[in-house]
Write a structure and sequence with these properties.
single chain; 425 residues; alpha+beta; Multidrug efflux transporter AcrB transmembrane fold; Alpha-Beta Plaits; Gyrase A, domain 2; 3 domains; four-stranded antiparallel beta sheet; 11 helices
Length: 425
C-alpha cells in the first residue's frame, strides 16, 4: 500500500506544479491560460465611463434593450470586447470601457446614435431607422462573374420590407439617400424592385468603409437619439492601487486560512492546503480560459469561493474525526466521512450556484464580474474538495501516516484505533 500511496502523492504533487506553472507562466509564446491573460475591468485597469440618455419620454424597456444591443455591438466592432453597456434607471445607459484614456475619442469611435431616414430625391421620408432589422459588412461578388469586394448587406423588418418594396418600385434608376442627423451617409441608386426585405449597398468600398457604413446604419435603427450627458476618465493609477490592495487582501486571507487549517486539522489540514493550492491554480486557469473580465468585486468572488472550498473540507474533516473517535479505521473513517458529508456539500454549493446564476443573468457590470468568478470558483472547489482532497488523504494513509493524534483526534473510546495493512478495505 505504501507504493500506491507514494504514486498518488507524486501525481498530486505533479498536478500542483503543473497547475501553478500554467497559471503563472501560461502555455506558448502568448502565455495562454495564464493570470496575465485575464482581462481587467474598469476599476482595476482604468478607462472611460460614458452615460447616455434617451431624448424621448416614456421610453419602453424594449427600446432600451435595443439601445443596449446597439451600443454593445458598436463596442465589439471597435475591438472593446471587455467593455460593457448597462441600463441605468429608465432612460439612461452607462458605458464602461477599460483601457481607454480619452473619453472624447471613445465617443467618436463609438459613433453617433442619431435617427436614420431613407429619403427620395424630393426629400420625402420613405423609411425610418427602426424598420432596419440589421446591417452588416459582407465580402463577395455582387453580380455574376464580378470581382469579390466589400459591400453592405441590409435586412428590413416586415413593415420595412413592404415600405422598401414600394420605395424601390417608385424610384428605379434613381437614388435613395440614407441620412443620419441631416448628413447623407450613402446614396445608392435603385437597380430593381426589392420585395424580399433584403438589399445590398455596393460601391468602391474598402473593408473599413463598408464596416463603418453598416455600423452607422445599425446605430440609426433606434426610434430616439442617445445624448451624452456625462463622461469621465477613471485613472489607471486608481485601478492599479485597487488591484494591488485586492491582491494583498487575498494573500493575507488565504495565508490565514492555510495556517488555521494546518493547526486545527493537522494532517487533514495539510491535505486541504495542498488541495487548496491546486484549486487556486485551476481557478486562475479557468478564469483565463473563459475570458472573464476581472473586477474588484470579482476578486471578492474568488476569495469567497476559496472560503467555500475550505468550508467543504471542514465539513468532511469533522465527519472523519467523528468516525475516528468512534474507533473506526482511518480508511473506513475517510470513506464514511466523505460519503456522509457529500449531501451537505452539494446542497450548500448548489444553492450558492443558483444565487450566482441569478446575479450573473440579472446583474450587470461589476455585479456580473462577482457572479462569474464565484460560479467558476464553486464548481472547481467542489471538484478539489471531493476528489483532490480525498486522493491526498488516502495517499497519506497508504504511506503510513496513521496516528490518530495527527488527524486532530484528542481521545478515542475503548481501544486504540485499528491500524490497517495489506489490502483490507
Amino acid at each position: 500500500m505504501k507504493k500506491k500511496g507514494g504514486i498518488i502523492l507524486a501525481v498530486m504533487l505533479a498536478v500542483l506544479v503543473a497547475a501553478s506553472s500554467v497559471a503563472y507562466l501560461g502555455v506558448g509564446e502568448d502565455k495562454q491560460f495564464s493570470v496575465s491573460q485575464i482581462e481587467q475591468g474598469l476599476d482595476l485597469r482604468g478607462g472611460v465611463e460614458i452615460v447616455y440618455e434617451a431624448d424621448k419620454e416614456d421610453v419602453t424597456t424594449e427600446d432600451m434593450s435595443a439601445a443596449i444591443s446597439l451600443l454593445q455591438g458598436r463596442l465589439d466592432w471597435n475591438g472593446w470586447t471587455e467593455a460593457e453597456a448597462a441600463i441605468e434607471g429608465t432612460d439612461r445607459i452607462r458605458v464602461q470601457i477599460p483601457g481607454v484614456e480619452d473619453a472624447e475619442e471613445a465617443i467618436q469611435e463609438i459613433g453617433q446614435t442619431g435617427q436614420l431616414t431613407f429619403l427620395d430625391g424630393d426629400g420625402n421620408v420613405l423609411l425610418t431607422g427602426e424598420m432596419v432589422k440589421t446591417a452588416s459588412k459582407e465580402v463577395g461578388a455582387t453580380s455574376t462573374g464580378g470581382a469579390s469586394m466589400p459591400y453592405v448587406s441590409l435586412e428590413f423588418t416586415d413593415e420595412g420590407a413592404d415600405a422598401f418594396a414600394a420605395a424601390t418600385a417608385a424610384n428605379i434608376g434613381k437614388m435613395i439617400a440614407i441620412v443620419m442627423d441631416d448628413n447623407i451617409i450613402s446614396a445608392p441608386t435603385v437597380q430593381s424592385v426589392i420585395k424580399d426585405g433584403k438589399a445590398t449597398i455596393t460601391g468602391n468600398f474598402t473593408g473599413e468603409e463598408a464596416e463603418n457604413l453598416a455600423a452607422l446604419i445599425r446605430a440609426g435603427s433606434l426610434p430616439f437619439n442617445l445624448e451624452v450627458i456625462q463622461m469621465q476618465n477613471v485613472g489607471a493609477r486608481l485601478g492599479a492601487d485597487a488591484l494591488s490592495t485586492g491582491i494583498q487582501a487575498g494573500l493575507v486571507g488565504i495565508s490565514l486560512v492555510l495556517v488555521y487549517m494546518l493547526f486545527a486539522y493537522r494532517i487533514l489540514g495539510f491535505a486541504a492546503n495542498w488541495a487548496l493550492l491546486i484549486y487556486i491554480g485551476l481557478d486562475f486557469i479557468a478564469l483565463s480560459a473563459c475570458g472573464i473580465t476581472l473586477t474588484l468585486p470579482g476578486i471578492a468572488g474568488i476569495i469567497l469561493s476559496v472560503g467555500m472550498a475550505v468550508d467543504a473540507n471542514v465539513v468532511i474533516f469533522e465527519r472523519i474525526k467523528e468516525e475516528i473517535a468512534a474507533g473506526k479505521s482511518l480508511r473506513a473513517s475517510t470513506k464514511i466521512g466523505f460519503s456522509r458529508a457529500l449531501p451537505a456539500i452539494v446542497d450548500g454549493n448548489i444553492t450558492t450556484l443558483i444565487a450566482g446564476a441569478v446575479l450573473f443573468y440579472l446583474g450587470s457590470g461589476t455585479i456580473k464580474g462577482f457572479a462569474s468568478t464565484l460560479i467558476v470558483g464553486i464548481v472547481i472547489s467542489m471538484f478539489t474538495a471531493l476528489v483532490i482532497t480525498r486522493l491526498i488523504v488516502n495517499g497519506l494513509i497508504y504511506v503510513g501516516v496513521q496516528n490518530p493524534v495527527l488527524y486532530g483526534v484528542v481521545s478515542i473510546p475503548n481501544e486504540d484505533i485499528e491500524v490497517e495493512g495489506g489490502d483490507q478495505e
